[in-house]
Structure formats: structure tokens, C-alpha cells
Amino acid sequence: MSKAIIDDVAARAGVSIKTVSRVVNRERNVRPQTRARVEAAIAELNYRPRLSARSLAGNRSFMLGLIYGKPGAHYVLDIQEGILEICRPHGYELVIHPGEFRDGDLVNEVSELILDRRIDGVLLSPPISDHMEAIGLLVEAGIPLVRIAPTIDKTAHPFVETNDLEASFELAEVLIGLGHRRIGFITGHPDHRAVGLRFEGYRKALRAHGIAFQGELVTLGDNRFHAGEEGARQLLSLPSPPTAIFAANDEMAGGVIKTALAMGLRIPEQLSVVGFDDAPISRQVWPSISTIQQPIREMAKTATQILLEQLRAGEAEPHPSMHPARVILRESIAPPRTQTS
Amino acid sequence: MSKAIIDDVAARAGVSIKTVSRVVNRERNVRPQTRARVEAAIAELNYRPRLSARSLAGNRSFMLGLIYGKPGAHYVLDIQEGILEICRPHGYELVIHPGEFRDGDLVNEVSELILDRRIDGVLLSPPISDHMEAIGLLVEAGIPLVRIAPTIDKTAHPFVETNDLEASFELAEVLIGLGHRRIGFITGHPDHRAVGLRFEGYRKALRAHGIAFQGELVTLGDNRFHAGEEGARQLLSLPSPPTAIFAANDEMAGGVIKTALAMGLRIPEQLSVVGFDDAPISRQVWPSISTIQQPIREMAKTATQILLEQLRAGEAEPHPSMHPARVILRESIAPPRTQTS
DNA sequence: GTGAAAGCGCTAACAG
DNA sequence: CTGTTAGCGCTTTCAC
User: Fold this and answer.
1) Which of residues 41-70 of B touch A (CB under 8 A)?
2) pLDDT in tens, A100-136
3) How many Å is the maximal CA-CA distance in chain B?
4) Is the pLDDT of residue B207 over 60?
5) B213 at A interface, C-beta within 8 A
6) CA separation for the pair A185, A336 (Å, rounded)
7) Any CB–CB contact under 8 A between A268 and chain B?
8) Which domains does chain B have, with CATH numbers?
9) How far is C-alpha B170 from the geometric centre of its chain's CA atoms?
10) What is the mean pLDDT of residues A190-199?
11) What per-residue confidence (pLDDT) applies to B339?
12) Contact A246/A173 with Cβ under 8 angstroms?
């Protein structure tokens, strides 16, 4: 068990502790020879700088914070692991903060994170990435942040994004291309703005193909499975039900599938279904769901890289970064039945 | 923005910093009156002790570590949030470490966690809770730990557990009670020992009801959806296929359902399916899966409480704690068809 | 019960 | 390029 401290290393290498510090912190202005000696000493003693000491003296914590909403377990975990993959090798730890969008506590939690933990930087995942109050707090405190997939106010802060709108336009076009004209839509949670863009993509596709938008074909969802079930029940009970349903995420698309099957419909023969996210559920239901794959993990990695760079440079440029999503076609779609019910 | 430090508080309250420290740390031997004065000063100044300073001086980090394997996103997230719910109010942060069971790096990561971060205590979730090498390392370093749902060596360390074996015995009995005699089983990942107990429960139930165990009705799984698909394909292709399939977790049960439906079978009329975990997927497929609900989040909470208590007391008693699981019946089961295929 | 002094192990100025 | 001197803000002795 190594109890070596910086003085031990300095003594062993025959230099001052400051030089050791320089080597550890990868500062320049150290003769290669000296650096090598110090590094050898570090290795021999299995020295590791005590984080708390570094934090106290250097006034930084080597910790990053992730504040996330609740957009589904796999989404959060993907982001989390994407971040870790990048920040660990750079000596940064991650502390995680679940936060409810509408919860007043979020603001408290954020200030706690800043005040107590002296977090060096923060990553905001949807829908918190649109929580301007929390962002304001961070900015005020001078804490660097990167927003993951924000939809509003995309000017002042660095962020990473994907093309929700274009991708859902494309997916809607696939349905139209198959011959569907009555296409239902189940919207996402209103707080989760990125999901709102998917609705835009759907409308834009209708417009582009001269199909009139019909309000009765839209139901309000909240990103959860249950909303898909409800929405499907509602849409499929219409006098003239849709031949296809586009749910704003896979979770809800799964709900649509379950309800449709329970109602005795055959998919895709009698109803086509598409979702969004390429969530596990899209592969696990039968029939599997056509969807859109978002590079969530990659976005998280890029966001972390941007954040670390900012910490290094002290800069805070907007620095946007785009990770395109792509359509994935599976079993849940087919041309609409000609005529008959 | 509060920049108050302990000296400010001491001055404001007219006491020495040591007394402030005593109040902050809830030590006894402070006159109630003095305590009140100090607390008032703390509130007025919105003082929050700087963690890094506390860590450096007190030689503890106020951070807990979670080392987890990969037993599915919802499982991990449940554990994570259970831990946070308890440790946050006590001023502890959580740092998370994904770790592969078979990965040699796990040991390195653990020592890093100990050496660099001076983690105060560690929670081990399955299957890492059975990783005796990692545990040995922690013990050697004198880091308190609590194991979540371990299956081996349950003597030396505190742990929380559930009754996997009894619960699956019960679930298997439900199938037998319905009249099933040929019941297939898809086993879990061999590293994930807790899941192994579910197989034991199944065998025990067969034995208890005088049904001969048949090796051909068992396939080896790995807890993942795909293994359920494969296993079902194999079992349902037998000359005399099972009338029911028990998968060691819901993920695999979902795979069974998908495959069975794709093969044109009707569930539960032609095949009953049960799983384990009460994972979201068990509610989201059609028909929904009968399963066993484990109090995962509760286990995590109890584990954290035990850990915090240990940190306070400096004790490390085995201190086991049992959270019973319970059977949940849903649409996926029915009596076997009499006679005909 | 309370306080004074002495660090915890490191980084941040400044010298050289 | 390298070393010296001060702290960072708290907890710990050990007095009183």
C-alpha cells in the first residue's frame, strides 16, 4: 500500500517538490532528463497525488457533474458511460445528479453541487439541457458546462446535438413512400424539447408530400410506454383510423405495438409503427420497430471532450458539434392494406 | 455567492473555529446555547464547509463508490438512485465505476479508486459483489464495503440480499399448479451467481412435485435478450417441446416471447412464459410476462445505510439484511393445452 | 466545554 | 529550467 507523498518522490529523484508537481501536471519547462528521473521515482514509489490536497491547493476538484432528467434508463446509462470513457483517463471523476425538470429542488441541487463539491464542469443531458435557470446559475458561478442536445438558446454555450428534425422527416417519408396517407403521431413530453423537433419533422414531411395535416391524428404523449398504449387506443378507435403510427420515441412505439396486438391487429399488415431512439425495446418487441438511431454515447463523449478542453483552455466558445442520426428499418412497417379494413 | 469560510463563521458567532467545526460535525460537548449561536451564524453566512479541505485534514473524502457489472440498464439505475437517495442527505457523493467481471482492469480500477480518490466506502452490485479479488483488495486497504445480493462467502462482510431461490421455487410452483409438466429453463449468466439460484429454485420445485428433471429442457443463457431468443428456438424445436418456459430473467423471457410469436405460437395458449426481475420489458411486451419483483432499489438503500453506519461506527459486522421478492402474475401464463399440438 | 497551534499534501506565486 | 516560501480551509492534538 503506497503511502508515498510528493516529498518522498522529490527526495528519491533529487529534485524539489515543485518539479515533481510540474511533471505530474504535465507542465512544460522541465528538462526531459529531469522529467524522466521524476517519472522513474514516481513509478518506483507507486506515487499518486492525493486528490484532496490538489483540490484544496489548486482550487479545483477534478470532478465533473452530470445532471440528468429521466428520459429512460438506457439513455442515461449510455450518456454516463460515454462521459466516463473520456473523463477517467484524464483523471476526472463523475458525480451524478438526477434532477426533475419541474422540481424546484433542481436549482438547489445545482448550487450545492457548485458550492460544496466545487465541481469543475458540468454536463447537462436532456431535458435539463434546456433548463435555462440551472444554466444561468452555472454561468453565474463561472462553471464551464456543455449541453447535450439542447433545443433553445443555442448561442451562448457549447453543446452537442443531433438532427432530430431531419431524421424524423426522413422516417416519415419512408412511411409516405410506402403509400401511407393517414399517419398518426404521438408526441413526446413537452419538457423534453428535443422530442418536439420530431413532431416538426413529421409535419414537414406531410407538407412536402402534399398531405393535409389532421389534428385528430395526433395525441399528446410523455415519452413513456403507457402514453403509447393510450395514444394507440385513441387513434385506432377513430372512425377512420390511421394506417401507420409514428411515436416520438421507441418506448411509446412499444406501447402502440402492445395495444395494437391486444386489439387483435396484425403488424405490419394492418398497422405500421415507427419510433425513435433505437432503444433496446425497439429490437425486443415483435415485430421489431423501425426507428432512428441516435449516437447518444458519441454525443456524450464529444461533450466531455469539449468540456475538458474548456477546462484546459479556460475558453467557453459555443463550439457546437453535430452527430447525425440515422434511420433503421425493421419489421414494423409495410404498405397500407389496399381498401378494406 | 457565498465565499464564507470557517473563520468568518467563528468571528460572527464569537467562538473559535474549533467550535464551529464541532457543530458542523455534530460532535457532542458543545453547550446547546453555543451550538445555536454557531448554527445561526452558519445560516446567515450561508456557510458550507469546503469538502476538499475537510478531506485533506480529516483524511476522508465524503465519497462513496459504486462498482457495478452490466446486468441491464434499469437495474443499475435503480441501484444508483437508491444509493443517492440515502447518501446525499448525509453529505456523501457517489462516484460510479462500471467494471467488467472478467476484466483484469477491474482490480486496477479498484485500487485507483482507493488510492486516488480515497473513497470512504464501497458498494458492490451483482455480479461484482461476488468478485472476491476486488473484495480482498478493499478489505486489505481497510475500506468498508457492503455487498448487494452476493451468493458466495457470505460470512465476512455486510451484505443485503433477496430470496432468489425461494421466489423462483414459488414461481415454478405456479406453473406446475397450472398443470405444466414439461417446463423449459433458460439459465442466467454464469458469472452472475445470484441468477444461478433461480435455477436451483426451479429444480427444487420440480423435485417437490415429483417431476423428473430433464437436461434437454435446459439451455444456457447469459441474461441477455438474444439468449432468450436462442433458447426458445432450441427448446421449441424439440420433438416434444415444453409447454412452459422459465427464463432466469425478464430480458431473456422477452426473447422467448418474441421468438415464440415469430414462430406463430400463441401465448399463453400454446406456451406459458415466466421471467424474473419485474424489469420494464416484462410489462411492455404482449402478452406481459409473469415474473418476480425484486426490491432492488430498497436493497440499495439498505446497503447504503449499512455502509454509512459502518463509517460512523468504524465497525464491520456481517450485518445481513433480507428483502423478500414477490411473485407477480400477468398474462403470459395459462394451463397447458390438453393433448393435441 | 472551549481554544491555540500545528499540520494534512499539494499548488501558486515569485525568485533565481 | 528549477527551487523557496506561503498558504488553501479544515481537523487534530493537547491544553485550559
Assistant:
1) 48-53, 55-56, 61
2) 777 667 777 777 766 667 789 999 998 899 989 889 8
3) 89
4) yes
5) no
6) 16
7) no
8) 6-58 (1.10.260.40), 63-162+295-324 (3.40.50.2300), 164-294 (3.40.50.2300)
9) 21
10) 85
11) 46
12) no
